[in-house]
Write a structure and sequence with these properties.
312 residues; mainly alpha; 2 domains; 10 helices; 0% strand
Length: 312
């Protein structure tokens, strides 16, 4: 990048920063004037209530701006929208505008990365590729950051779902054997799972609401399996559908399936325990083995060096 091109980029960045700061100051002054007129109109009591609710109002205003941006850049393909909505529900976002907020958040993230890049470029003037490297890192973070956050939330919740599903089945078996129906048992055990598995309990509450709304049991459990995104829930929904179609005993079926899920959880724990020595190999080689080697060899090396020094 030549000196003239660097100067042009620097001047352009400064102009854009000045325009951004000026626009921000204009809107801030405008908002302050509106608030002052509103407070004078409402009186002292109304002004006190407004100051108390100001953080919530600011947050709602920011969310509304994000939603408006998301509406403008919303995905038009229904298939992609459905897939993204299902992914967001697996991450715990049940709001019907979750896709819109997510799209708006991605656009705002890119905008923030662009502004940060324009602010960094003048600071890295004359430092070679440092500015381009910073811009590339910000762009990568803006492009992949929201998606990685969603995937991390999904992975964390899936671990909770897999750990809590056997306990859910055990409680269902106990409740059904005590004389409760399956729908009543789900409503009963939801309160028991809130403290240990809060996110799984949220899905069970939503399942209870769908049952009360009149949806069929097999459709409700299939929708739960899609929201959870784990194989155990899909197998359980399929088992309930087959049990309802064939007329088999629900208590016996639940007991067999609960035993199977408990065995699977034990197998996963054993698999992790068996994989632990292989995972510890690299830390042992990199950190512990050099220290042990130094403790064993350094005294002998020191004695040998002292012996040779006395010989000479």
């Amino acid at each position: 990048m030549g000196p003239q091109l660097q100067s042009i980029v620097t001047m352009l960045a400064l102009v854009l920063i000045a325009v951004s700061v000026g626009a921000g100051g204009f809107f801030a002054m405008r908002e302050a004037g509106l608030r002052a007129r509103r407070s004078r109109r409402l009186g002292s009591e109304g002004a006190a209530e407004e100051r108390a609710g100001r953080p919530a109002e600011v947050l709602s205003g920011v969310l509304e701006k994000v939603r408006q941006v998301g509406d403008r850049v919303a995905i038009q393909d229904p298939a992609q929208t459905s897939a993204l909505r299902a992914q967001l529900m697996q991450a715990g976002f049940f709001n019907r505008d979750a896709v819109t907020f997510y799209s708006g958040a991605r656009v705002l993230t890119l905008g923030c990365a662009a502004i940060a890049t324009l602010m960094i470029m003048p600071l890295t003037h004359g430092k070679g590729m440092l500015g381009l490297l910073a811009a590339a890192m910000l762009s990568i973070l803006a492009l992949l950051g929201p998606e990685r956050v969603i995937k991390a939330r999904i992975a964390s919740r899936e671990r909770e779902y897999r750990d809590g599903f056997p306990d859910l089945l055990d409680l269902l078996v106990a409740s059904v054997e005590a004389g409760l129906s399956l729908d009543a048992a789900v409503g009963r055990i939801t309160d028991e799972l809130v403290r240990r598995y809060p996110h799984l309990a949220e899905h069970l509450k939503l399942l209870t609401l769908e049952l009360r709304a009149g949806r069929s049991r097999k459709d409700v459990w299939m929708r739960l399996a899609e929201r959870l995104g784990i194989d155990e829930a899909r197998s359980f929904a399929t088992m309930l559908r087959q049990s309802e179609e064939m007329g088999t005993s629900l208590g016996d079926t639940l007991k067999v399936f609960a035993d199977e899920m408990r065995n699977k959880r034990m197998m996963r724990a054993e698999e992790k325990a068996l994989a632990l020595p292989a995972k510890l190999t690299v830390p042992l080689i990199l950190f512990i083995f050099p220290c042990l080697l130094g403790v064993l060899i350094l005294p002998a090396a020191y004695k040998i060096s002292q012996t040779f020094s006395h010989m000479h």
